[in-house]
Amino acid sequence: MEMPAPDKGVIARRAAIAEELRAIVPGEGVIVDEDELRPYESDGLTAYRTLPLIVCLPETVEQVAAVMRYCKAHGIKIVPRGAGTSLSGGSLPLADGIILGLGKFNRILEVDYDNRCARVQPGVTNLAITTAVQADGFYYAPDPSSQIACSIGGNVAENSGGVHCLKYGLTTNNLLGIELVTMDGEILRIGGKHLDSAGYDLLGLLTGSEGLLGVVTEVTVRLLPKPSSARALLVGFPTSEAAGDCVAGIIADGIIPGGMEMMDRPAIKAAEAFVQAGYPLDVEALLIVELDGPEAEVDHLIERVRAIAEEKGAVSVRVSESEEERARFWAGRKAAFPAIGRISPDYYCMDGTIPRGQLPLVLRRMRELSEHHGLGVANVFHAGDGNLHPLIMYDANKPGELERAEEFGGDILKLCVEVGGVLTGEHGVGVEKRDLMGTMFNADDLAQQQRVKCAFDPDGLLNPGKVFPILHRCAELGRMHIHRGQLPFPDLPRF
Fold first, then answer.
1. Cβ atoms of 193 and 73 closer than 8 Å
2. Architecture field, domain 8-101
3. Would you list the DSSP string of 182-245?
4. Is the pTM of this model over 0.85?
């Protein structure tokens, strides 16, 4: 994986840069010691590691703006970082770049029940928002599996989802406003407590922009009242294809569950051994279907889902009878990723999205790819919206296995695009999918996307080397001639 060539001049000025940053962020806000830099060398995609030049941990918006202005003036790259749970290498450091950590921005600034929203700093964890308001009967809907650790600023950067995004939407559907610091050090407020803004949808543009356009320093999120009733079904199937057919059948019947997740046999066994959630171990696939709303409606929908499941060949159906049992059903799903870590030395967590009707085909093709590459795969995904999370199991200590895992993952993502899907649902592109962008976008598409990047960051200092497979300078963009889809001198790196 090729990254931008480090600027030796910037690296040579490391001590002076650190001293000048300390004048902006005093105290312990600037880290240069190698051992103290080590925790920042990777994010959740631990296959790739680089020590950053410096880590800077500001505490105020004014400090963030001053750091941005300083880096702009001196041509220093910045990689914004939240909790570092990104699974696509979105916050992978650069040897000649500063990690701008937002971990100290960890306060809930305001809870406004009248307008059903909360203003929070970007370092607040996803789960902390719900914890702060649940006693009053409210919650924040997007719930990634990493919600106990991931920060809301990172959720905005990646447009994170979660098990309940089928009915209640991803981050972009639950976001009302942000405060953004540009590369020039300007502090902008976009959106707010109101439901919609006039003019261009800048909030939609910035959500999911992966730290390439600016640094988020405040977030206004939508709060929802907790449903009056919620129950979950555990439905076991003899094949993954039958479970996929059931997913399509439920949606086709006009039922939108609060959440609908699917796990295959390897994931079921690992999660049950880890959590003891009560999952059946004699099935090839398991659906967790949650229905919420008024109690009478939930009871009615449970019977409709049960009938569809039995029609599609379900061999077991179990309905939660208490809130504790419902939470236990979900505990296994939420712990599926660490559970796989108990049965495999390493795993590669992928993220792609397909049309729901293609689930049976894609699951069958993934089994064939597993045999072809000689690596196991466990499937855990948001079945209701077709967001797949295959976990490719490998051993990094065995020569060539990481490379085979990457090839396997690339084949899965190409398959997603082939059947009408997309490269990512919620993990972002980062470095993991960067070189696959050409399978989904042509050169004109990518150039148009980069023009947006250039409008916000013409010098390419914000999170360079991410998302775009060939990153040329903004000044070159309009002059780059592409003939029949081929770049001139394709052997030359263009970072």
1. no
2. 2-Layer Sandwich (3.30)
3. -TT--EEEEE-SSS--SSS-HHHHHTT-TTSS-EEEEEEEE-EEPPS-EEEEEEEESSHHHHHH
4. yes
